[in-house]
C-alpha cells in the first residue's frame, strides 16, 4: 500500500480554538465590548488570512470594516480580502495601510476610480472580478474564509442573529465560514432579550459586538418618479408592448434604474389599458422597489422574492405578506444567493442598461480608469444553458430549425442612444478591451455578451436580436435603432425597411404607439408622495427622497 | 389616480392559521403523534395545494410520503407535487389514487418507466423536468409551496432541527415555504433534549412528527473498487494525463460512477508518479465518496464541499475537519443548493457519462420509455456564461482569435464506445428527440449539449472537442475515438492522423500511456476493505458493500 501522509487533520479547528482562547479576556460569552473590537480583531485575525467582509450595494458591515482599518499593520498584514462590494473608503484604506494586499470582489461602483489607481500603484493585488454567485460559490471551493465579518440587526444573549429585511448575503457567508472552522464575527445594531425570529442560529456564530451605530444601509433602489423623462416613458411603452406583451413575460428581474422604474409605473395605466393584468409580470426576482407599489396595489403582482431590503419599505411589506417573503415576525426575509439563483434560472426575462455597447451588442460598465465590477447582472443577463424547463416566453425565442430545439432567456438591453455628455452609447470597441490590458486582467471585463442579448430597446425602436442569423445581421439590427449615432447614420432607409419587413426591427408605429402619447401623466405616480399615497401611508421614504427640488 | 384593488393581503397567512387551528387537537406544541400523521395531513393540506416533498437521490422524507399516500382522496386531491426525485413507489401511488395530479421534478431514475406510462395513461400531468437549481429557483418565483414535507435527523422540544450530514436540500425547501406563509412539516428520526447543532431554527418549522423508522437514505455514491475494470483504468489514466494534468485542473466535480472512482483511486499511485500532488484536484464539489479516502490520506485534497452525505463516512469525516465542511458538533454539513451553485460557477471541470451521444456530441440519459430526468448534471455540465473569474484551466479553453476573449468550463464526457448489450453509445439521433414528442414535452430532454462538451474520453483516446472549429470537425473528432462503432468505422486512418497532427485527438501512446500498464494493481484500493484500512478503520461501509462476491 502507498504511504500515507502523517499530519494533523484539525489544523483549522486548532487555530480557531487557539485564537478564541487568546481573545478570552475580551469575551463575555460571545460578546466583545464595543470599544474592544479593534484589539479583538488583532487577536482573532492572523496575517495572510482570507477575510470575507460583508458588504454589497445595500447592507455594509461598516463598524467592522472601520475597526479593521484601525488594526496595527505590524500585527495584521497581507490579508486576502473577499468582499462583494468595495464601496467604503476604509475598504481601500486597509490596503494603503498594508493590512491587506489582495482582493477578490464583485462590485466596486463608488470606489472604482481609486481601485484602478491602487492596482497601478501596486498597493493592491487583484484577484478576480466576479458576479455575486461566482464569489459565493468560491467561498465553498477555493476561497474558503478564515474569518467572516458580518452585520445583523439584533442578537440575543446566546448569539442567535436576526437579520430581517436585509438578510441578503449573511447566511451564505456565515455558512461557508462557520462550517469550515472559520471565525464568524457579527456586528449587531442592538442586543435584545428576545429576537423577532432567528435568521442565523447561534451555533454558527463565534463573536458578537454591538456596533457604535447601526450598519450602513443604502436606499439604492428608490427611484423618485419625478425624475422619469418622457423618453424613458416612450421606451417603457415599447418594452411593455414589444417585449413583455409580445412574448407573454410572466416572471422577470428588474434592477436599479429609471427605465425600469418607468415600466413599473406604467403597468397600472398603460398596461391596464392593454388588458395585460394577470397575464404578464406576475412573478418577480427584485428588490422591493417603491415604484412597484402601484402595480402591487392594482393587483398585478403575485410574488416578489428579494435580494435585499429597501429602506422605508418595511411597514408596507409587513402589510403585504401575500406578495413578499416574510418571517413569522412579519418582516421581509431577503436572500441574495437564492434570489440570484432564481434570477438566473427561474425567470423569463432580465432587463438592464449600459454605458457602452459595441457593434456586436457586447456591453460593459467598465470604462477607462474605472474598474466598476459587475454585481449580479452577468449572472442574470445571460442565457443559462443548464436550464431545462420551459415557459411560453422562453420557448418564443427558439429556433425551430434545430432538431435539438431549445428556448432562450430574454435578455433585454434598454438605453438611450446618447449618454450624458453627448457621447454615443454605441462604440466600435469597448473601453473594457483596453482596460483589461492596462489592469492586467486575464479577459476583458464584459458585462453582457452580445450573443446573449435578445432585445435592444432605444428611443428609436426595438431590435429583435434573437431573430438575427449572423453577426453581420445583428450589427445591422443594432444600427437600425441607433438613431443619429455614427453606426446609426451609416444605415440606409432601405436597410431599415428590410429589417422591419423581416420583423427584426420595430418602431413605435409598428407597436401602435404614438411618440406624443409618451407623457408623464401616464405614470401611476408622479413623485414619491404619490407612492406614499398608493401605499396607504405604509411606505415611509428616507428623508432625502421627500423634499421637492425644482 | 388609478383605482386600487380591494382585497385581503393576508390570504396565505389566514389560510395557514386556519389550518393549524383545525389541527389543534392533534398538536402538542409543534408535535403530532406518529400515528396521527395521516389525519394531520388531511387537515393541514388542502386540495390543489402545491406540495414540495423532500427527496433526492440520497435522503427521502419516506415517512411523510407514505403518510401522504394514505390520505383520503375525497378530502385531499389534485395536489401539485414538487419533488427533486420521484423515486419511491408511493411517490407515484399518490397519483394513481388521485391525491395528486401534477408533478414538477428533477430526477426519476428508479421510477422512470412507470412515470412514462402514467403520463401516457393521463394519470399524471407533467409540468417540467428540471435541474436541481432550476427547481429550487422556481420555489421562490412561480412554484411557491403551500406545504413542505421534509426530513431531519433530530428535533428538540421547540422544533429546532438537526439535519447533520444529510442537510442536502432541506434548508432551501424550508426557506421557500416558511417565509411565504406555507406550512413546514418535518419528520424526524428522534426527539432529543439537546441538538448537536441547529441546522434549521424552530421559527421556520410548524409541525414535527417522530417517524416510525429513520428516513430512507441511499448509499448511492459508494463504488466498490473491486468492480473497476482495466478499461476504466485506462480511460482514467488518459483523463488524468490528457485532461487534468494538461490543463492543470485544480477544482472539479465528480459524480457517481466507476470511471471517476477509478480516477480517484489513481491519484495516490499513477498521479503521484507524475508528480502532480499539490498541483491538481485540490478543491472538490462532490459527495464524500469512499473512493476519495486514499487521495485524502495521501495529501492530495485540500477541501471537499458536499451536496449530501454518504452512509458509512460519518466517522471518517468527523476526524478530517481540515478537508470537509463540518459543524461545531464535528459532523458534516452538506447543502445541495450551495454545492450545485459552486459546482456550476466555481470549479474548473465537470466530468460525466452517458448512455447515448449523438454525432454532434449531444447526450441524454432519457431513452425510449424512460423519463429519467437530470438531477444536477446539466447545471454543472455546461459552460456558465455568467462566469467572469478565471483560472488556468478555464483560460486554457479560450479561443485567442476573439477580441472579447474568454475561457470556458471543462466539460468532459467519459464512456466506453459500447454499452451493455453490445449497443454502440454513439447514435445518429438521440432517443430523447422521439421521447419528447411521445411525452408531449416542449423540448427534447438533452442532458449535455454538444457545444458544451470540451473533451470526450473513450477507451480509444481523447477528442479535444473545444479545439474543433465547426460542427463537421466536431463530428470527425468524435468519430476518431469511436472505435468500431458505425461512426468510428466510417473514418479513415488518414483523417485520424490529420486530427492527431492538429492536436484535436490523442491516443494512449500520445500521452505516454501503454495500454498494458492499465492494471488493477494501479488502484490505491482493490476493494472496500482496503478503503477501510486507508481510513484507519474510520470508514464503516454499509453491510451490502462488505461481503465478497465471486
TrEMBL record, chains A, B:
InterPro entries hit by this protein: MadA (IPR005777), NagB/RpiA_transferase-like (IPR037171)
One Pfam family named in its UniProt record: Mal_decarbox_Al
Transmembrane regions: none
Coiled coil segments of this chain: none
An example molecular function term from Gene Ontology annotations: transferase activity
Name recorded for this polypeptide: Malonate decarboxylase subunit alpha
Gene designation: mdcA
